[in-house]
Amino acid sequence: MKIVLTISLVLAAALTNYALADNETCSQQGILTAKDCPGDGLEREELRLYEMVNQYRLQNGLYPLSLSPSLTRVANRHARDLAENIGYLTPSWSDCRYNDNDPSTWNCMWQAPQRLNTAYTTPGHEIAAVNGYKIFAITALQQWQQNSAYNAVILNQYQWIMPWQAMGVGIYQRYAVLWLGRTPDPQAATQLPLLGSAQALDINNQFVETSTTFNGGVAIGTGAFENRVAVNRADTLAAEGIIAVDPKHVGEKADIVVYVRVKLPEVGDAKLYMLTAEGKPQPWDNEVTHLLPFQQNVTLKPIQSLKLYTGQLDLSAIVQVYFGYRLSPNTKQMLLVVNNQPIDLQIK
After folding, report:
1. Where would I find the SCP domain in this sequence (predicted)?
2. Distance (Å, whole) CA 296 – CA 336
3. 194 neighbors 212 (Cβ within 8 angstroms)
4. Top-level class of domain 29-187
5. Could you tell me whether strands 253-263 and 228-231 are parallel, antiparallel, or unpaired per DSSP bridges?
6. Sign of dihedral through CA atoms 93, 101, 50, 67?
7. Nearby residues of 330 by Cβ (< 8 Å), 6 or more positions away
8. Does the model's pTM come out above 0.70?
9. From CA 212, how far away is CA 214, in angstroms rounded?
10. How far apart are CA 22 and CA 14, in angstroms?
11. Domain locations in the chain?
């Protein structure tokens, strides 16, 4: 069994490689028509804004949103359009007018992903911010938090109660733009099923409250990820997971852990196995302190993306996959945080 685990931000799986055009092609009205422009992907400050918005949602009991390459492209194009063609903050684009009081203009915003020929085919919604000569992620988020209407959009309040499923961000010069959509982006590399809340155990195996949540699943070949899968031993599998880390744990040192519960045919009790740093399964006695780390001494980020497994499983069994993190002993307490709902595999 070959196990591959890498820790990265969720955006690493979601972003595509853009063949960037030159700045001249993407200036003025070219912003609205060019196939690719510099900045269509995610840059450092945009990544920071993406993480901060998701962390703010977590603090308010909401799930983090997947990064949308399509909506990130739209957000970046509108930020450039505002800076280069319009010169002030507005939901309008330089090629169409938007007015809150005129429903006939609303498609100017909603259909921007389609006008820019992205893979996102359903309406999106935008909020934006402006600040002096240059804007930073923290400034944009603070403006939105202090604006009750924009804050409601981010937190799915009032008329925005239907949950968002995709987010795109763009920052250019003094403009920051956030795009949200109610359907997943088909261009996103990975859409992982929701596994829900965590179970957190202290060193005495006592339950501890946490807001950490999990997504994860298994895909057969190039198929979609599912959290309950029946597979054949000859199938090539990929297993991935996402941890939306409790804000109280962000920045703490922790060990990433992976373990499985395996039930073989005609065998009584299921057995627990932990995966070592070399990707080798070893028996585990269910003691938190005895669980070997798969990745040691990681600084926890708000969103951790895991590639758990790739290859075939040459056994017939029922397998349940758990993953998460264990806060290091030098933190306030030893704490094991893993998915409460496992990824379930039935291998024939």
Report:
1. 51-170
2. 14
3. no
4. alpha beta
5. unpaired
6. negative
7. 253
8. no
9. 7
10. 24
11. 29-187, 192-347
3-state helix, strand, coil in the chain (%, to 5): 20, 30, 45
Beta strands 317-327 and 343-347 are antiparallel
Domain 192-347 architecture: Sandwich (2.60)
Which tokens go with 123?
């309406």
Q: What's the token pair of residue 274?
A: 């932990």
Distance (Å, whole) CA 329 – CA 322: 21
Quote the radius of gyration of the chain (alpha carbons, Å).
22
Best CA proximity match to 326, nearest among 243, 256, 247:
256
Each of the 348 residues of the chain gets a pLDDT tens digit; together they read 333 333 233 333 333 333 334 555 788 888 999 988 888 888 889 988 998 998 899 888 887 888 888 999 999 999 999 999 999 999 999 999 999 999 999 999 999 999 999 999 999 999 999 999 999 999 999 999 999 999 999 999 999 999 998 999 999 999 999 999 999 888 775 567 878 888 998 877 788 888 788 889 999 987 888 899 999 998 999 899 988 888 788 888 999 999 999 999 877 789 999 988 887 889 999 888 889 998 999 998 877 888 888 888 888 999 999 999 999 765 556 789 999 999 999 998
| Pairing state between β 194-202 and 213-220 | antiparallel
- Residue 11 near residue 49, CB atoms below 8 Å: no
